[in-house]
Design brief:
Nucleotidyltransferase, domain 5; alpha/beta; single chain; 148 residues; 5-stranded mixed beta sheet; 5 strands
Length: 148
């Protein structure tokens, strides 16, 4: 009986350890926003392509109160900016007003676990920014796919 040999595995490519290979096309998000939700407010980070410099991005971070009118105005602003995905990070049920109003505005919304976001931001290192600002910025960077 003849023995058959399987083909040797291709050598691993550096940097792809544990990478999932799928047949689906990769979706690139160029306009994204993230909100680190707290009890009475949310720290919003908006990342958009730069208007005049190709390949560059602009980032705007602002605090928005959790009042109905403020959240509706923010969602309208995000829709006008062409945001493709909004990520919400919250430790409690405070995310609900943000989530429901974002969906009503027609935005694609994802919820992120506060524990997972904290693990990502703490592994990336501390800087002079406050934790909510850092969390919102980091989540937006990850959604867009930029390097940290």
């Amino acid at each position: 009986m003849a023995r058959t040999r399987s083909r040797p595995a291709s050598p691993p490519v550096p940097g792809d350890a544990g990478a999932e290979v799928t047949g689906e096309p990769v979706q690139v998000i160029s306009r994204a926003a993230a909100i680190d939700v707290a009890k009475g407010s949310g720290m919003v980070c908006l990342r958009l392509p730069h208007e005049s410099r190709a390949g560059r991005r602009t980032q705007k971070v602002q605090e928005v109160t959790a009042a109905f009118a403020s959240v509706v105005a923010l969602m309208d602003h995000l829709v006008c900016q062409g945001v493709e995905r909004l990520v919400l990070e919250s430790t409690s049920d405070y995310w609900r007003i943000w989530y429901y109003l974002a969906e009503a505005a027609g935005l694609e919304v994802q919820l992120a676990s506060a524990r997972d976001v904290s693990a990502i931001t703490s592994s990336a290192g501390r800087n002079a920014r406050s934790a909510p600002t850092r969390n919102a910025s980091m989540v937006t960077v990850l959604v867009v796919g930029d390097t940290i």
